[in-house]
Fold this sequence. Notes:
By secondary structure, the chain is of the alpha+beta class. The chain has helices at residues 6-9, 107-118, 137-153, 163-180, 186-190, 199-210, 218-224, 229-240, 244-261, 269-275, 281-292, 296-301; strands spanning 12-16, 23-30, 33-40, 44-48, 54-60, 64-69, 72-76, 80-85, 91-94, 98-106, 131-133. β2 (23-30) and β3 (33-40) form a beta hairpin. This is AraC family transcriptional regulator. Residues 202-302 form the HTH araC/xylS-type domain.
Amino acid sequence: MPAHDASALLSTSVEPLRHGSAGQDRHYIVGRFSAWEGKCRSALKLGFDDAPDAFVLYLPSTNAPEIRAGTQSFPTTRATGFLEDLAYFDELTPHEHSNHIGLSFEKAAMVQQVSELLDGPVTTDLEFDRIVDLTSEKGLRLAALGHLVWSCLNLSEADRLSPAAIERLFQATMIALLEVAPNSYMPRLEQSLSPAVSWQVKRTIEYMHSNLAQSMTAALIAAETGTSVRALQAAFQRFKGTTPLGYLRTIRLEAARRALLGDDGSRLISDAARNGGFTHMGRFAAAYYQAFGETPSDTLRMR
């Protein structure tokens, strides 16, 4: 876990906006996570070429008027963090005389964490708001975790915690980020589903589980369970927060994962997919990776 130049590891180009020394970074990589401390002595522009598929959290150590991501500007103070998906911008301009701690989380790791918290697959893109409020109690704890991660890394190798311990700190920070930063899965992560599920939903779920490998449409499901498509859609949105077919996709992915993990399950990915109702292997593999942050082959190797 040696220290590196951050620009080398994040495939960045650094362009000073004035003459003189632009700044310095030290960067550490631990598994699917990384951290660095940026010190900008003068205004500079960071260009990201072939950036990793990751979310990056900036925790300012000093107040600065703003940070620019592409053509947009965002205020940055010690009370405000900045979160960015590297897939959506290729240029970052921190303000001069600003310091920050940066934390990077691979998207696959973040998706896997959401999947574990939901105890189910992630079926739509994970999206965050860019501004992170660090003034709430949870926000303060998130900032404290970020600084703890950095303080545990920025030591001599002899004094540093093991990579396994630091990975756990990153994971704790990731969970805190999911709780603090508004994101597309926050309602589900916070949701406490009512046990009083309607009879239409209960009957439909039983039918789905009994016929998992069969082809199904919303109209067929409604007809088999004695209700209308409209009533079924409304019931699932109310009690499960998704559509009937969205729920079906979720339980199919869960069934395939159980088959790949179980000692008595299939050792062939194609069998697990077909038994779960997937007929196109390429689409199954893509949906599985999006849902669990790992490939079916990765899951099979965990046995």
